[in-house]
Structures are given as C-alpha cells and as structure tokens.
Amino acid sequence: MTIASDRAVFHICSRTALQHARAAGVYRADSLQHEGFIHLSQAHQVLPTVQAYFAGVPDLVVLVIDPTRLTSPLRYEPPAPLPSHAPKPPSDDLYPHCYGPLDLAAIVDAVEVAHFTGAPVHADTMAVLRRYAFERLPVEGTLFRSSWRSSRDDAQGAPAGTAMIGLYTDSPRSVSLFHRLAHDEVWHAYGGDPFVLHLLYADGRTDTVTMHANAGDDALVQYVVPAGTWQAGELVPGGRYALFGCTMAPGFTGACFEAGRLDDLRERYPAAAATIERLALAHGDTRMPADFAT
Questions:
Q1: Residue 15 lies in a domain
Q2: 245-256 pLDDT per residue, tens
C-alpha cells in the first residue's frame, strides 16, 4: 500500500495522558516500552479501534499527528490481533506504528472522540494546521491562535485589545459553539472556503451571515457581531477549511465569555432549533477557565 508521507495519522489517548505529555515535552505510550512502538491509526481505523479497545473509557481524545514532524520512524504494518468481538479489518489494511516517542510539534490537534468523524485530513487543511500551530479554545472548541494582546490593561486587568486567528475545518471538525461576549467582536475572512455565522439576538430575531475571503464574489470579508449576541460559526456545507480572524477592543478575557445551553437556546429561539441542536452546548461548563485569555 502506498501512503502519502504527509497524510495525517491518529492516536487515541486520555486527555490526562496528553496533559502529562505536554508537561514532559514528549508523548510516550506504554506500548513503546512493551512492544517497541506507539500504535497509531489511519482516519478510517480510529472509530473501530475505539470500539474494540476503548469502549466505555471516559475523556478520550484523538491526536491528529503530522508525519512530516515526527523524528521517530513511522512504519505501516499489519495490525495486532483484535478482540474477538471487534470488526475485522481488511486483510491488506495496514496500521501506522511510530517507533519512538511522538514529538509534541507533530501533534497538530486533539479532538474529542465524540467529535471525530472518521474522515481523513485533506493535505490543504494539514498545511494550514502545520503553518499556524493552533490550539483548541476551552468550552467553545474552535481551533485558534492568539496573534496580539495589548500591553495596556484597564483597571480590571483586561487588555485594551486582542486579536486571534481561527480555523473552521470539516476534518478535524472545528466549529464555534453558541456563545455570547460582553464586547463587540470584529470578524475577518482571510482564506479558504465560505463560512457562516449564526446569530441569535436578545430581541428574539435570528440571522445568518456568510463570509468569504474572495472579494471578487461580492463576499463579506468583515463583520461586527454586537456585544450580547449569541453567535456560532461553521463552514458552509461542502467546504474544507476557512481561515478567519477576530479582534476585540476591549480585548478578550475568559470573564467576557458565556456559552449557550442547548435547552435554553432552543426554547427561546425555536426557529433556529436545528442549528442550535448542532452547535449548542449540551452539558459541561458554560464559562472559560478563570485564568484563560487568548
């Protein structure tokens, strides 16, 4: 089997194991000591592997790994025998094995198992992930990278202004869940495919705004979301990725953010129920960690 050298590979682990790896500066797995390599998967192999080996295990993430940033050898080999109840892979289906630790620089994303679609990461998307070294926003879940934070703070310690770049993708899935901010937010479309902002206003109105960096298509390249508006964002269906930016003045802090609960938003905005069910928080914290700031 011929496999592109830059095709993303994946590893399933607990969020705690990832946190320990970040503290240590490198990711190791028990199998590295016992078998000599770390078990990885191709995209279509991830969910069957979860079913076979991780059923019922909480707080799992799927690490998206850029093979071009691995310093340890990567080999595609036949799989180890699966449990008897697990679906059997095709006889010629090879699994990636990493013969050494995973470099943290090679881990370009960590997706909750529940949000992993099983689709491969397109080479164009991988190039953007490789270029910008995104992180995941707490609660909201979007791929982001802070690009500017003013050195001037107000009396409460909030910065005079902030800027970030973000990425919506179909695989690995990246969207913005419904949330509202205490200040206006200016959105900028930079590249890639069109994306949509879903807006729920305090007076009960709803709206959608489509943004696209290609000004030749009369696309909207900049838009202001007013403070207090519930907002969510995602790619237009069929898109691969969208690179965008957000600026705020006063700047973003975790204290100015609140996520929307699915049940609450659905009751108040029944006309947008389908979008809310797809992009609202069903459970978990609605606030950012107290010390979080982009």
A1: yes
A2: 999 999 999 999
- Supply the pTM of this predicted model: 0.91
Number of domains in the chain: 2
What is the structure's pLDDT at 208?
A: 97
User: Domain check: are 79 and 140 in the same one?
Assistant: no
170 and 80 in a common domain = no
| Residue 244 belongs to domain spanning | 136-279
| Domain-embedded: residue 105 | yes
| 4 falls within a domain | no
**Side-chain half-sphere CA neighbours of 66 within 13 A:** 20
Q: What confidence tens digit (pLDDT) does each residue in 76-93 have? A: 999 866 555 555 566 578
Q: How many Cα neighbours within 13 Å face the side chain of 82?
A: 19
